[in-house]
Automatic annotation (TrEMBL):
Residues 235-357 form the Alanine racemase C-terminal domain. The lineage of its organism: Bacteria, Bacillati, Bacillota, Bacilli, Bacillales. The keyword Transcription regulation does not apply. Its EC number is 5.1.1.1. The keyword Isomerase applies. It is an enzyme of class 5 (isomerase). GO terms for molecular function: alanine racemase activity. This is Alanine racemase. Its cofactor is pyridoxal 5'-phosphate.
Length: 357
């Protein structure tokens, strides 16, 4: 028996259709499409009308091009492998004034998106003045030179409702767009800023923007808790198996480093064939699983196994559900287990059986 990672393809498509909602979407497919698989994600998104993708890995960007010859592909991390960008027609972020000054001549014929740092402080131009400096220098530069095709930022606080940070970064970004597009008469093929949280807070793609850049919502997880569970069908099921049921006595220690000590005699513990080596977050062990439609608490998590306290209704070979449409990734995120993307990207698909149905 082996634990299984399984996708319901019809439910996945249903969710993508709801999220897209006839808007222009740039699908984030970084980290192997949040572990859903690049081939599956690109082909499914394309079928659902999405033809623009972003990732943080040049290797993945090239893989996307091999899957879809016509896609628009945006690389969110800068690279100096400019010949590959030209060969595979990949757009890339321009992350700073210093990067431009260092690679100005080598960037010829590379399509770049000017990146504004904003409050996340992860990457990007620190000020609009730096962006204007590059634009003016670019206008004065004779060919060959890079092609400015896009403008973008990232909202780091769109899922925070009890602070004003989202409004601050939103206003700062709108000022950047206004100055560059309206006052400097710049034309961009792509302007994108909204992540899943911002997109659903606003209810639409921003005016003067070409796309919302959506990640986690496309994979069936709510970006914040007040959204309806029913509006985001989760297509993913992660299941394991009861290998055997052990009976332990009061005071018996079970699991690594006294992870669990039985409080009563004749405590029944199911040994389940999944653990943190398969990518189950340690914080997930503070919660429950489902066996035969009943809920049971996890008592200890090990590398390849876990202990679940059960009753007489559980036997060897029973299926154990860690995640499905009822035990959702985002439900546990809001309980503090970890970010939606944290659990998805942690899952070890080399040790789990992977199925699309």
């Amino acid at each position: 028996m082996t634990a299984v990672w399984q996708i319901n393809e019809a439910r996945f498509k249903e969710n993508v259709k709801r999220v897209k909602d006839n808007q222009s979407i740039m699908a984030v497919v970084k980290n192997n499409a949040y572990n859903y698989g690049l081939d599956f994600a690109i082909n499914t998104f394309k079928e659902m009308g999405i033809d623009t993708f972003s990732t943080t890995s040049l290797h993945e960007a090239i893989a996307i091009r091999k899957i879809d010859a016509d896609a628009t592909i945006f690389l969110m991390n800068a690279t100096d492998e400019f010949e590959l960008l030209r060969t595979y027609d990949i757009h890339m972020t321009l992350p700073s004034l210093a990067f431009y000054e260092q690679y100005k001549e080598a960037l010829f014929d590379v399509k770049v998106h000017l990146e504004y740092e904003n409050l996340l402080h992860r990457s990007g131009f620190k000020t609009i003045d730096e962006m204007i400096q590059v634009i003016e220098d670019h206008r004065q530069t004779h060919s060959p030179k890079m092609t400015i095709t896009g403008l973008w930022t990232h909202f780091g606080y769109a899922d925070e409702f009890d602070v004003t940070m989202y409004q601050q970064e939103r206003d700062a970004w709108f000022n950047v767009v206004d100055v560059l597009v309206n006052k400097m008469d710049m034309s961009f093929d792509l302007i994108h800023a909204q992540n899943s949280a911002s997109y659903f807070r606003e209810g639409h793609v921003f005016e003067h923007h070409t796309h919302a850049r959506i990640g986690i919502a496309l994979y069936g997880s709510r970006p914040y808790a007040s959204l309806s569970r029913e509006a985001f069908p989760q297509a993913l099921t992660v299941s394991a198996n009861v290998i055997q049921v052990r009976q332990v006595q009061q005071g018996d220690h079970c699991g690594y480093s006294f992870a669990y000590t039985a409080e009563e005699n004749n405590t029944r513990l199911a040994v389940v064939d999944i653990g943190y080596g398969d990518g189950i977050l340690r914080t997930r062990a503070q919660h429950e699983v489902m066996i035969n439609q009943r809920i049971y608490p996890i008592r200890a998590l090990m590398m390849s196994h876990m202990f679940v306290e059960v009753d007489e209704h559980v036997q060897a070979k029973d299926k154990v559900i860690l995640y499905n449409e009822d035990l959702r990734i985002d439900d546990y995120t809001f309980k503090g287990v970890g970010a939606n993307s944290e659990q998805l990207s942690a899952l070890n698909l080399d040790s789990l059986i992977k199925e699309y149905r």
